[in-house]
Amino acid sequence: MRPSGRNTDKMRAVSFERNVSKHAEGSCLVKFGDTHVLCTASLEERVPPWLRNGGKGWVTAEYGMLPRATGDRMRREATAGKQGGRTLEIQRLIGRSLRAVVDLKELGERQITVDCDVIQADGGTRTAAITGAWIALHDCLKWMEARAMVRTERVLKDHVAAVSCGIFASQPVIDLDYLEDSAAETDANFVMTGSGGIVEIQGTAEAEPFTQEQLLELMELAKNGIAELVTMQKDVVAGPL
């Protein structure tokens, strides 16, 4: 039995709230159960120096956790003078995931930065961030389209979403919360597109090594879960901002 009482293939309650930021060109508050992440997409009419005059744009991401996103207050990374390795790894993952479904030439020489700030953490912050970041990016592009800057369907090639899966109490389960994540025998994150393409798989054995058969079981759970998330994304962006 999972601590939450969910079936092994049952995700937490997922919700998306768009247009939550007055100033950002695109924004989304995403909730995977008690994990809440604010995603804001910001447009800049410039690209990094190494992309100048190349005819392509750039999509990148930044990630952070608020001091009381967890049970104990964490020190802000800004006060330490540098970002931690986990933060850097996650924000690079988010950026790679978004760029996998963006035509950078169609974007033009512009940069979109998606900031993912964890308001409350209960496991799966990176997967929630990726899934919500896609909606913020979509709405930023719609903002641009309304001003005749781009055509969204030309820039955004597909959906992208992510979910965690793992082996908990010897069972493959989907969308681990903190209680499961902290005690999981195997922990993995899957990022996939709406058409089923694999963007990234991160998997780690916390105790005993896992088998190929177990990996395939986790992947099947992830495939079905991401299909659900993509359907939810489609339903959400079909409505008015």
UniProtKB/TrEMBL annotation:
Signal peptide (from-to): none
GO biological process, one term: tRNA processing
Pfam families: RNase_PH, RNase_PH_C
SUPFAM superfamilies: Ribonuclease PH domain 2-like (SSF55666), Ribosomal protein S5 domain 2-like (SSF54211)
Residue span, Exoribonuclease phosphorolytic domain: 11-140, 160-224
Keyword Magnesium: no
InterPro entries (UniProt xref): ExoRNase_PH_dom1 (IPR001247), ExoRNase_PH_dom2 (IPR015847), ExoRNase_PH_dom2_sf (IPR036345), PNPase/RNase_PH_dom_sf (IPR027408), Ribosomal_Su5_D2-typ_SF (IPR020568), RNase_PH (IPR050080), RNase_PH_bac-type (IPR002381), RNase_PH_CS (IPR018336)
Keywords noted in UniProt: Nucleotidyltransferase, RNA-binding, rRNA processing, Transferase, tRNA processing, tRNA-binding
Record field: catalytic activity: tRNA(n+1) + phosphate = tRNA(n) + a ribonucleoside 5'-diphosphate
EC number: 2.7.7.56
Keyword Lyase: no
Molecular function, one GO term: tRNA binding
Binding site for phosphate: 86, 124-126
Oligomeric and partner information: Homohexameric ring arranged as a trimer of dimers.
Stated family: Belongs to the RNase PH family.
HAMAP family cross-referenced by the UniProt entry: RNase_PH
Function: Phosphorolytic 3'-5' exoribonuclease that plays an important role in tRNA 3'-end maturation. Removes nucleotide residues following the 3'-CCA terminus of tRNAs; can also add nucleotides to the ends of RNA molecules by using nucleoside diphosphates as substrates, but this may not be physiologically important. Probably plays a role in initiation of 16S rRNA degradation (leading to ribosome degradation) during starvation.
Name listed for the protein in its UniProt record: Ribonuclease PH
Source organism (scientific name): Hoeflea halophila
Gene symbol of the encoding locus: rph
